[in-house]
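Posting for a labmate who doesn't have an account.
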Amino acid sequence: MDADAVGGTIDLKIGKAKEEFHASFSLQGGYGSLAKTYGNYRINGSASERFLDGKLGVQASASLDKYNRSSDRMSAGYFTNAQSEIQGGLLKMYLNNVDINDNVTDRKRYGGSLVLDYRLPFGSLMLNNFISSIDEHEMIQQNSLTLTNYNWSGYAADNEFTNTVIGNALQGEFEFFGVNMNLSLSNSITKQRNPGDLRMEIGPRTGGENMWGDSLKDDLSVTPSELLNAYYVNSGATVIMQRLYTLKRDVDETAQSAAVDFTVPFNFAEYLAGNLKFGGKYIRNTRKNDETQWGLSLNSDIAGLTFIPLLKSSLWPDLGIGEDNVVYASLFGDPNYDIGNFLAGKEGVSNSVFYNKISIDKIRRLEELARNTTFVSSFDGRSYPYYFFNAQASTQYDYDFTRHFGAFHAMAELNLGTFITFMPGIRYERYHYIYDADSTFERATQTVLGAQAYDYKTIHWDSTKVGTWFPQIHLRIRPTEWLDLRFASTKSIIYPDYRAVSPYIYFSSAATPQSLQLGNPYLSPAITQNYDIYLSVYENTVGLFTAGFFYKEIDNLIVPITLLTRDASKIHYRMPLAYSVDTEIRTWTNLDKSSYVRGVEFDWQTRFWYLPSFLNGLVLNINYTHINSESYYPYQKSVKVGMFGSKLVDTTRSGRLINQPNDILNLTMGYDIGGFSARLSFLYQDNVLRSTDIKQEELDQYTDAYYRWDFTAYQQLPWLEGLQVYLNVNNITDRPDRQFRSVLERLSEVQYYGLTADLGFRYSF
């Protein structure tokens, strides 16, 4: 097992082709409640056969599906006032803004595989080839309401995305003179393409108030739903098209790996037998991100103001631009766009909360006209398209990443008699990465078309080389045939995300306060010491019952951080910071203090075969985990200096581990009789801490406790052996995802996906 598997792994192996010809085929159609669509479908097929007197096995499979994955989303932002009243021991929170999104998403996916296996006199070889591709199209209508300055804005987006993965793996299992050897070689290529995500932003012509709600006035204590029900856009406010831009993104990934493992059995005495395992692996990963952005700001910059008369006179005269040469957002409106039952009608808001829905077809046409029409720059005399290349946005997120990873391990499995198994082991891992990323410094807003308002350079990083030893001990005791005790002490690692360790820098002196975003290539991996104790009881009437205790101590946990500082040592002096004003820094850091996770887990799997009559078809599976976690997060506390001054002091505060719930429950109730099988499952996950605020506990982000019901069933049909009909229903109660700010639970986001149902036929022979 790799040392970065903190929670364990499931080792799934591809089976070899069976001796006789086998095939299966399934076809299903589906329904999505949010978009009220019946167009979902999935088709799967597979076949296998052996040739050359059974030596060569061939397995082939293919799949095709299409699903509507639409969603509705409402999010909210809050602020606190240090002079405000205390509520529940915390500063009272006030609503700042509300955003609403209608996302229409269609996703197509296809895939296939070809698996060849060949039997040798001393083992076997298997070649696995597969391809998988996703094609997604998403349209978004968004409105944003800012209560603190009564401002309304919006945008529409048209996004396309494809992701294709091609993989090959050669595996060998051999035995020489009693020694088993497993060998594997693999290669995979992933290509992610966003050919042109298009977005049109609209808002007030001159800024200022353009939204109001008479019943709200200055009361910032309203809920997001109350604001949505009360607001309207002033009839006198002029809403215009502000900006149109297209982002093209190409991501290319590769992974090559080689691994070999040996198992040497031994038998010293009747009471001492087992085997010795050792081996190693090497992995090379690459990832390259290339982004390009073009854009046009109408009614504001020089190119836009000269482009408008061309639209009016010759390029698009029937668009409707008036004598004032202003591109009003209403010219791009789509009155036939149907939002549907927004938020499933469950958040107390009407379906008419969206203002000025935008036509995707019209903004696509505007993009085409801007791309194909040119002008001569007053800055350098060169010819440019009106759809101007944005060099800053096209470079600041580009990178080229390569990681080299090597590991070897050795362990022994010692069977002491028939009841005790002892497994000590050691593993060593070493990784080294090479990173090229862009450093971008924004000086000011561009005022002359074509003038460069930024500087950038490529940063090369090739100095991170980390090696770590991982000892482990496993002990299994079976005092009886029905009782199993297991003890384990293991060490594991959490490697930093490739974005977190990027050497990129993005600095803006035009922002207030000036801002700096940067990766942290000095990050250390997080190291976890794990202890586990588990007891299992398996008996006919009981089934399988397992109870366990686990404890994890995590050092150097990696977390994102935002802070205000003038101290360049906090960013390893990667660039100088101003001495007179604070700079807002967003980066990643290792926590100085250790984090802890403690918990107990109970699992019971049984079938009530001993009950009378039809009750003996009942099955039950219940799993419950209770977790207690603690971590310490960076915190900046304001303290008084002198009579009137203050300064920020760095300290820490305790809290739960990020993304760690306190309680998790999985429950499955089922019934099997003859050719019929059904399962009703319930999932519950307690709320989790998503992020902490560097200065105010009130602005911590939480998820709501989540629960969901799912149902699946199938029935064998009598007309043809191997033919069955099946039904899957997910999210029966239409449960949304919710997030809150602070323990006061001020709603910050809610997203609905709806119920989905699939009905299909499966035939196997």
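Reply:
Got it, the structure tokens are right above this. The first strand starts at residue 22 and ends at 32.
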